[in-house]
Structure to design on (486 residues):
């Protein structure tokens, strides 16, 4: 083989490789890239890709845009037909992407073509759902129709007789292929529909009237799943009502009023055999005694010519209740702090608060790590039968005694004595002893006197720490120490 032949063979292999690489992306086959005067209802097709597992297509009016359709899957189909056509006399930019198993998502270069201008109005269309002359169609049905080539919108007229248009008269629904009447269609009668496509040139003319007959409206109050919104809906009102209500012992009847928003209300009582008796149709009711009742709230829902009540209800019990009686308060001092336990009696459901009648309230009847101060206790009936109040005397504390004193005759801190607190219930001392660091008794102080002057048998004691022991009339005892400074 000559040198020239070998060179030609190399060039052939190189060009073949380039061509093979160039075929890894899809290109438009209908219409071709750069084509003009393309019908707006054309089927856009592109070349197939070997081992492809899915195409994705975008149409836009500017390069790389998707304002017509964006990233729409066509599956394994190498074509796509826009549901409502393409805009007329417009440059259309098409971007094809695809998946291959085990490979990254591939996006091909954008190609373009131009649609033909519209020179005449569109033709007529026809219903696809319901079909003309169909019977037993649900009154809440959706109307669907075929695409009319070159149409940019549709006018819809609906009536209960040919050309009457007493339901909708040339309602412009836009460039869509379906319409669901918000209140449904007339029930149990013939319904007549005229569809008129239009575009910028004009309307379709002499479109025929189609008809079908409906059945009674079936209104589902719910709960049901709305596939359009992805939500679970219930047409009845939202109700918020307790399971138990207390009838206080000093009340003859119990007045209750619903705070729910609804079109109507009903209240029922139950007899001994389980039958219901309507006792009120108002927002409020007078409940005469303890027992079981049912509360119901409802909304009126109208579809077409039918109106139903969509209701929700709650069975509740009226129970006897009363304000609490506080029988005792256990007041104990533990290493971790003071604990109060409130003991009560009463036919109610109670919660407890400390020092504030507004709360916060708790279900437990004990409070831990409570300060030694004076405290108020509040017990509230959860059924609304009142708040009971009590108090707890403060505990004797080492903080009730000075930490130091200076008996130097300047009339300032010359005496050491129990500090009488400015509270509603003061603690009365019976004993107050002072000791030195060896435990020797130095003084027995009268709690009503000025206090200790820092002497022992007339002799001034030196600056040092001294200890005390105090006992209250209720038996509480506290020990501590203080400093004498000279």
């Amino acid at each position: 083989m000559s040198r020239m032949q070998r060179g030609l063979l190399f060039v052939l292999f190189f060009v073949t490789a380039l061509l093979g690489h160039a075929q890894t992306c899809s290109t438009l086959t209908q219409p071709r890239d750069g084509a003009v005067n393309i019908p707006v209802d054309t089927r856009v097709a592109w070349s197939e890709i070997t081992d492809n597992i899915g195409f994705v297509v975008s149409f836009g009016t500017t390069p790389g845009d998707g304002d017509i359709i964006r990233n729409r899957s066509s599956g394994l189909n190498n074509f796509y037909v826009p549901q409502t056509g393409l805009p007329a006399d417009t440059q259309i930019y098409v971007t094809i992407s695809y998946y291959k198993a085990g490979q990254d998502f591939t996006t091909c270069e954008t190609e373009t073509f131009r649609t033909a201008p519209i020179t005449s109005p569109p033709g007529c269309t026809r219903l696809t759902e319901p079909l003309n002359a169909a019977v037993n169609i649900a009154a809440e049905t959706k109307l669907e129709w075929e695409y009319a080539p070159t149409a940019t919108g549709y006018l819809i007229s609906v009536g209960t007789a040919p050309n009457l248009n007493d339901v909708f008269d040339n309602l412009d629904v836009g460039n869509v292929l379906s319409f669901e009447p918000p209140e449904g269609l007339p029930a149990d009668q013939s319904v007549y529909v005229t569809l008129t496509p239009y575009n910028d040139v004009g309307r379709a003319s002499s479109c025929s009237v189609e008809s079908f007959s409906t059945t009674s409206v079936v209104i589902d109050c719910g709960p049901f799943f709305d596939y359009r919104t992805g939500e679970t809906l219930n047409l009845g009102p939202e109700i918020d009502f307790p399971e138990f209500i207390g009838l206080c012992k000093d009340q003859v009847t119990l007045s209750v009023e619903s705070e729910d928003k609804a079109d109507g209300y009903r209240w029922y009582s139950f007899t001994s055999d389980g039958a219901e008796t309507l006792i009120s149709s108002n927002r409020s009711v007078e409940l005469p005694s303890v027992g079981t009742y049912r509360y119901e709230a409802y909304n009126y829902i109208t579809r077409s010519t039918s109106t139903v009540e969509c209701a929700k209800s709650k069975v509740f019990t009226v129970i006897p209740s009363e304000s609490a009686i506080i029988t005792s308060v256990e007041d104990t001092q533990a290493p971790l702090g003071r604990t109060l336990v409130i003991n009560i009696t009463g036919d109610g459901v109670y919660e407890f608060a400390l020092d504030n009648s507004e709360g916060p309230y708790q279900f437990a009847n004990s409070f831990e790590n409570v300060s030694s101060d004076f405290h108020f206790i509040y017990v509230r009936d959860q059924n609304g039968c009142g708040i009971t109040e009590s108090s707890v005397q403060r505990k004797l504390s080492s903080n009730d005694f000075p930490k130091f004193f200076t008996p130097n005759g300047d009339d300032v801190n010359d005496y050491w004595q129990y500090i009488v607190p400015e509270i509603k219930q003061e603690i009365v001392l019976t004993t107050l002893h002072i000791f030195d660091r060896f435990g020797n008794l130095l003084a027995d102080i009268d709690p009503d006197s000025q206090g200790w002057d820092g002497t022992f048998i007339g002799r001034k004691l030196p600056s040092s720490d001294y200890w005390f022991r105090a006992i209250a009339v209720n038996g509480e005892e506290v020990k501590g120490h203080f400093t004498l400074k000279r």
Notes: DSSP finds one helix and 37 strands in the chain. Residues 4-23 have pLDDT under 50 and may be disordered. The longest helix spans residues 3-22. Residues 89 and 117 are 4 Å apart (CA to CA).
